[in-house]
Specification:
alpha+beta; 4 helices; 7 strands; globular; binds zinc ion
Length: 136
C-alpha cells in the first residue's frame, strides 16, 4: 500500500482515535498499537497546498512558493499576534475571515509549566483537555 503521509485525523472517544487518511486509503492507527509495521519512503514530496511534487518541503509540507505566499502557511498561524485579518489584511482576506477572524478561546493548561493557548472556538474541546490532565 502506498499512502501519502499527512496530519492524522483524530476523534476523542474513551481514548483518542487516530486515522491516517489519503485519497485512496484510510488506516485506523489504534489497531496497529503493539503490532510490528514497516514503512518505506518513496522519496516523493508533494506540496500540501498546490499538490506539485517538489524536491524539498518547508514548514508543515509546503513548496517554497506556497510557503512564502499561501494563506495556509501564513506566519500568523504560528504567531497569532502577527495576524492582521481583523484589519482586512493578510495573504488571503477570505481565508483570514474564515479562519482567524472568528471567535476563539484563550486557555491555560498546566503541563511541565503553565501554557497559554489559543484555539478556534469550533475546535475547542475543554472536556478533552480536562481529562488529559486529570490525575488517577
Ligand atoms: Zn506548493
Ligand atoms: Zn491571521
Amino acid at each position: 500500500m502506498e499512502i501519502e503521509l499527512s496530519k492524522m485525523e483524530t476523534k476523542l472517544l474513551d481514548t483518542v482515535q487516530y486515522k491516517l487518511v489519503s485519497d485512496e486509503h484510510t488506516v485506523e492507527m489504534n489497531v496497529l498499537i503493539g503490532k510490528k509495521i514497516s514503512l518505506q519512503s518513496t522519496g516523493k514530496f508533494r506540496c500540501q497546498s498546490c499538490r506539485n511534487f517538489v524536491k524539498k518541503l518547508f514548514a508543515q509540507g509546503f513548496c517554497y512558493n506556497c510557503f512564502t505566499s499561501s494563506a495556509d502557511a501564513s506566519p500568523c498561524i504560528i504567531n497569532p499576534e502577527l495576524c492582521e485579518g481583523h484589519l482586512g489584511k493578510g495573504r488571503d482576506i477570505e481565508w483570514e475571515k474564515s479562519h482567524h477572524v472568528q471567535p476563539h478561546f484563550v486557555y491555560l493548561a498546566v503541563a511541565s509549566a503553565v501554557k497559554v493557548g489559543l484555539q478556534e472556538a469550533h475546535k475547542f474541546q475543554p472536556g478533552g483537555l480536562i481529562r488529559e490532565h486529570r490525575m488517577p
